[in-house]
Amino acid sequence: MDTGMLDVPGARLHYEVRGTGPVLLVMLGGSTDPAMATPLAELLSGRYTVLTYDRRGYSRSPLTAPSGEHPVALHADDALRLLDAAGSEPAHVFATHAGALIGLDLPAWIHGMLTRMAANADPSLRYELRAFSRYVPDAAALRDAPAVMAYGAGDLGTVFHRATLAVAGLLGREAVELPGDHVGYLRDPAAFAEALHTALTPSQSRRS
Fold first, then answer.
1. pTM for this one?
2. What is the 3-state composition of the chain as percent helix, strand, coil, each rounded to the nearest 5?
3. DSSP secondary structure string, 123-140?
4. What are the pLDDT digits (tens) for 5-55?
């Protein structure tokens, strides 16, 4: 695993890179950081260059300027800067919860751990909660984008499942079911990694 820091307006982003192959940016939500994605990232690193990072203000990504709210568009800009730094080739993005909102706003779509998580509750509530709650994706711009909406099999009937189906319907496509619940990538990383690979490259996976 390689680690580094990327300077962006108002912050320095800590990122981690594993593996080789097409770039796969992993963005989790809530007060999580790359530590929760480690099992999944390790399993996928044989097929992808897996890129994970701490969002601005979280864990090892300090703010470098006075800050107000952190809207979805600001985080999307951070993510795009990371992808640009990783190379010019098209990239895959796997995102959950708040990370999924950031993924939907990415211009690219359109053309120890518990201590850190506890500390991250403060920037999550202080800078993001209200801004993220108001976010509505640009459905017209996203309908032709290669975005896959997915939910956990264990989340059927929950708000996570209903929200995923609502966004998928808005974009005019079927949602994909992945193993586990909304943290299936953590509970059974091996099964989740295989299902995620199939969802990202369905025709290729059928041939392999």
1. 0.71
2. 50, 15, 35
3. HIIIIIHHHHHT----HH
4. 999 999 999 999 999 999 999 999 878 788 889 999 999 999 999 999 999
Q: How far apart are CA 48 and CA 130, in angstroms?
A: 34
Report the C-alpha dihedral over residues 38, 175, 90, 27, rounded to 10 degrees: -30
- C-beta atoms surrounding 33 within 10 Å: 22
Q: Which two tokens stand for residue 188?
A: 């059974």
Reference 100, options 28, 153, 160; nearest CA is 28
Closest CA relative to residue 47, chosen from 176, 197, 149, 172: 197
Q: What is the DSSP string of 56-85?
A: TTSTT--B-S------HHHHHHHHHHHHHH
Provide the residue type at 98 as one letter: A
Asked whether the beta carbons of 71 and 27 are under 8 A apart, the reply is no
